[in-house]
Write a structure and sequence with these properties.
Shape: elongated
Strand content: under 5%
Low-confidence stretches: 86-90
Structural class: mainly alpha
Number of strands: 0
Helix content: 55-70%
Order of helices and strands: HHHHH
Distance between the termini: 48 Å
Number of helices: 5
Largest sheet: none
Radius of gyration: 22 Å
Mean pLDDT: 81
Length: 90
């Protein structure tokens, strides 16, 4: 497996979403390619750090800024249902 293929499969590798043989091929390449190995370590560390940085709620004032940019018209659940019932092609 070359660097391009490893790059294309890296996220699937980290997520455990590839088969055994492709996983072994990626692992072999990572063990022998310093550049890809460095990228892999960065992605793995980033994934470990990310959950602690994700917010559970929107920042203060975000809703008002969004409403302001939409002309101050709040949307309701009915607005979304009506849009889903409409034919997208006219």
């Amino acid at each position: 497996m070359n660097c391009i293929k490893v790059s294309q499969n890296l996220h699937h590798y980290l997520d455990g979403e590839i088969g055994r043989f492709r996983r072994q091929a990626v692992a072999r390449h990572l063990s022998s390619c310093p550049a890809c190995s460095s990228g892999f370590r960065f992605e793995a560390q980033f994934r470990q750090m990310l959950p602690g940085k994700v917010r559970d709620e929107a920042p203060e004032g975000l809703e008002q800024r969004i409403l302001g940019s939409l002309g101050g018209q709040p949307f309701s659940a009915d607005d979304f249902r009506q849009g889903a019932d409409r034919d997208p092609l006219g």
